[in-house]
Design goal:
heterotrimer; A mainly alpha; B mainly alpha; C mainly alpha; A: mainly alpha; Four Helix Bundle (Hemerythrin (Met), subunit A); 3 domains; 6 helices; B: mainly alpha; Helix Hairpins; about 75% helix
């Protein structure tokens, strides 16, 4: 985990995040987000979270973004939105100011956080982030949360089915 | 500064923060609810990145497990959210967020 | 030569070799498919170019490459160019974790016959297979053609749906092996003496059906459905880009067959105590699977789209979950006797269900009115 690959990948991640926001075409935006997710997955690998990295690709890039593309195509509204200038100028201005404030806040907080977590990576066992360790932590320490997550998914599934179902006469 | 120096924790916080801010600004300036939705995903991912980095720098697995939960919730949220967008498109035949003012009274 | 350098060079050589073999298999498979399907339909198949028509795919490839690349008006350029590449890359990349032989010793160093033995190999393959949908989806969307878009919509829904049964089938195998490494799955089958196709017969059947849907092959070729959608997602593609879709399809076929071989048929090991010949048995099994898929293609008609989705969600996924639960219970409670127990249960279930389907099918056949005889072709 050295500085050069970190900076190179950061540039990619940030550039594609910006492209998502500034792109007029929603499908292109979705693809930019996929590239951003892929870059984040590589970050996860660099940080020793191999299981989460693969899940990131499978869940975000493989399922969630395909769902987005599917809906975009279903509604087929390409080119309907005129990009940035459709929102009132004042709103964009306020958004920019808020964004800069947020960035500044993070810029101030980051050094403080560094003191919190230790500037350098902790020494971790070789299997840190392996599926085995993730599974053990998940099912030993966070079993209740896991069950709740299962219920959330079930509820979401039923909600999506009910919402998307055409009214039966 | 050497190129092969280890990455300090503060850099991860910055990177995550920048990604989060881009997502937040994008959410505010776009009109297409699907793109706004994608910006939310971007913000969630920035949070995930920070969780994973913290897990690595503190040497505890809880951060990675938390990201696992965030992903589960994100999947649920996308399924419901997109279903809502499709339902709105069916009834109003537009998905312009500024048109969705039916709750204003 | 240092160890790191050797590892790098070995990996590079393996990657290039696998790439070359996969790519040169494509024309052979195209020829094989045309021949096999032709024989099953009592035709001759290609027989003009070279011995047995073997050079026909070469001729087709040359034709496609020198053909004009037509780019229709109104296509979305970036995605239109990107789509064929995206349909071939995941298939090639997935092969990286497939082991095809025992480790060999070269220059006094052991080299695994596998491009990369990652300990999350199976997850890696699942992740890549979930990316395969982008090629088809983007091709259909960017073509600016109603038929293409319909094909893309169908296939994206189909591929997301059928990933789930594949995942469930694979997870059952992972439970048996206790590892996500494909090498460990093969080792388990060698050490226990059971090919997983018997204790995991249900998973195997689910995997075969669902992977056929993932491959977009008949009878699940909703994305291209010639008789309904012209050519579906690749209607607007011509020349070399069209050829790339073909290459992607066949590389995918090889990858899926290799995966089925590794997970269910004992990988590269010889069956019935026959002598072990490196790689040969692996290729034999892969080709058995490939010909099986061609057989299915020649036999079954395309099924209706809503039936396809209903089958995936209402049959394959519940059965997959039940099988996963059963496997988990048996592996937890009787780890040392899991193999024979599961074999008995699975084979019994398969026989019973097969008999029920057979009887029910006969009853339906008796009740349904016969199809009207085809009138004599006149004039």
């Amino acid at each position: 985990m050295t500085l050069l690959p970190f900076i190179a990948l950061s540039v990619v991640a940030i550039a594609f995040a910006l492209l998502l926001v500034l792109n007029r075409n929603a499908v292109h935006g979705a693809l930019c987000l996929v590239v951003n997710f892929a870059a984040v997955a590589v970050f996860f690998l660099m940080l020793g979270a191999e299981f989460i990295a693969v899940v990131q690709v499978a869940v975000y890039a493989g399922a969630i973004m395909v769902l987005f593309l599917f809906v975009l195509m279903l509604l087929n509204i390409q080119g309907q939105e005129g990009g940035l200038e459709q929102k009132p100028r004042s709103q964009i201005l306020i958004a920019a100011v808020l964004g800069i404030l947020l960035l500044a806040e993070i810029g101030v907080l980051a050094p403080l956080a560094a003191g919190l977590g230790g500037a350098q990576a902790a020494a971790v066992p070789a299997d840190f982030g392996s599926p085995r360790l993730v599974g053990l932590t998940l099912f030993r320490d966070h079993l209740l949360a896991f069950e709740i997550a299962a219920f959330i998914l079930l509820a979401a599934m039923m909600g999506a089915v009910v919402l998307a179902k055409r009214r039966l006469a | 500064m050497a190129w092969n120096a280890p990455v300090p924790f503060a850099s991860w916080v910055m990177l995550s923060g920048v990604l989060f801010s881009i997502g937040a600004v994008g959410f505010l300036i776009r009109k297409d609810p699907i793109i706004m939705f994608m910006c939310i995903e971007l913000m969630l991912n920035a949070g995930n990145l920070l969780f994973i980095a913290a897990a690595r720098y503190l040497g505890i697995m809880a951060g990675q497990v938390f990201v696992f939960f965030v992903m589960a919730v994100a999947a649920a949220e996308v399924a419901v959210g997109l279903a809502i967008i499709v339902a709105i498109f069916r009834t109003k035949s537009t998905i312009d967020v500024d048109e969705m003012s039916g709750m204003r009274g | 030569m240092s160890d790191t350098l050797f590892t790098w060079i070995a990996s590079l050589v393996k990657a290039v070799l696998v790439f070359a073999v996969l790519m040169s298999l494509v024309p052979l498979l195209i020829w094989l498919e045309r021949k096999v399907v032709a024989w099953m339909q009592q035709r001759i198949g290609p027989n003009r170019c070279g011995p047995f028509g073997l050079l026909q795919p070469m001729a087709d490839a040359v034709k496609l490459i020198i053909k004009e690349n037509i780019i229709p008006a109104g296509v979305d350029r970036v995605t239109y160019y990107l789509a064929p590449i995206l349909s071939i890359v995941p298939a090639l990349a997935a092969f990286a974790v497939v082991p095809f032989g025992e480790p060999v010793t070269i220059f006094g160093r052991t080299v695994a016959l596998q491009v990369a033995d990652v300990n999350i190999g199976i997850l890696y393959i699942l992740a890549l297979s979930s990316l395969a949908v982008y090629g088809v989806t983007l091709a259909g969307w960017s073509s600016n053609n109603k038929y293409s878009l319909l094909g893309a919509l169908r296939s994206s829904a189909q591929m997301i749906s059928y990933e789930i049964p594949i995942g469930l089938a694979v997870v059952s195998v992972v439970l048996m092996a206790g590892s996500l490494s494909l090498k460990a799955v093969v080792d388990l089958q060698r050490d226990s003496g059971y090919w997983l196709v018997f204790p995991q017969l249900i998973s195997f059947i689910i995997f075969l059906i669902a992977s056929n849907a993932e491959l977009n092959r008949p009878p699940f070729d909703m994305a291209e459905a010639e008789s309904e959608l012209v050519a579906g997602f690749h209607t607007e593609y011509s020349g070399f880009r069209f050829a790339m879709f073909f290459m992607g399809e066949y590389v995918n076929l090889v990858t899926v067959s290799a995966l089925a071989t590794v997970m269910f048929l004992g990988g590269w090991h010889a069956p019935f105590g026959l002598p072990e010949i490196p790689i040969v048995w692996f290729l034999v099994k892969i080709f058995a699977f490939i010909i099986f898929y061609m057989w299915i293609r020649a036999t079954l008609p395309r099924i209706r789209y809503d039936l396809l989705m209903a089958f995936g969600w209402k049959v394959l996924i519940p059965v997959g979950f039940l099988n996963l639960a059963m496997t988990a219970v048996v592996v937890t409670l009787a780890a040392d006797r899991a193999m024979p127990l599961l074999t008995a249960v699975n084979v019994t279930l398969a026989v019973v269900v097969g008999a029920i389907i057979k009887i029910a099918g006969r009853r339906v056949e008796r009740r349904a009115p016969r199809l009207a005889p085809v009138p004599e072709a006149g004039g």
